Amino acid sequence: MTVQSDAPRASVQPVDTLRTWLDEADRVLVAAGAGLSAAAGYDYGDAERFKELLPALHRLGLRSRYLLGVPLPDDMMWGYWAVHIDDIRFGAQPNPLYRRLRALVGDRDHWVMTSNVDALFARNGFDPDRIFTPQGDYGQLQCTVPCVRETWDAKPYLDRILAAYDRESGRVTDRAALPVCPNCGADVFPNVRVGPEFVDSAFMPAGDRLTRWLGDAPRSGRLLVLEIGAGFNTPGVIRWPMENVVRHTPGARLVRVNPGHPDVPADLGDRALAVPFAADLLLDALAG
């Protein structure tokens, strides 16, 4: 099925169908990719926000937060990570879009699976014990070796870096503030999936609980998978697994909310709904 994705506003039919499917759902699995956080104001490709936060890197010709693989001195790279993670992960203010999504789910039995590492679900009313984040969490650091299968709270390390960070040069002025593994002294890195060294020990128990919950779905009422903002950067994390969940769960339905890639598999037939607009527009339409 192919859906045009350039509609300037939410059409009535997908919104009405989603309302009906939510009313008929006993369980909801919210599955989210980067598009949800972008719609909520955390767009990694936002050049203006990048310039505001990281003027020194902007002067070097960099224009977005996608800096993995960019060769920078370690004092500049940790300056970037500290500013970026502090902005994305540790903001104290509630996010209106995530709060509206939590209200939409309501008191239905639900889980969250997300490739996002910003903890915005847990920070906005979703139960942390029912959130699976297979790509990690910016709130933790890990050894790059790794010498141990454990992680450390990132906040104290980042606070030390920020205290020694010079915004104009983009450098951390005190090298003693640069973090190292407290166990072996090797380099550390945010606890996010970038390669085989990723330490996933803290996240897999939630994945196991989600698997058991999904296994109960045929006996526990109709399941609705509400997938938001999951495109083709890492389709094997959210997009394709959600199709398979619906494919192998009797009576389950898939709603795919994505302004650029809303297509749903033809084999799911009338159990899949393509919604070709962003999450903020969808929630606006549902509130109308």
TrEMBL record:
The keyword Metal-binding applies. Zn(2+) binds at residues 143, 147, 181, 184. Residues 7-288 form the Deacetylase sirtuin-type domain. Keywords: Metal-binding, NAD, Zinc. InterPro entries: DHS-like_NAD/FAD-binding_dom (IPR029035), Ssirtuin_cat_dom (IPR026590). The keyword Cytoplasm does not apply. This is Deacetylase sirtuin-type domain-containing protein.
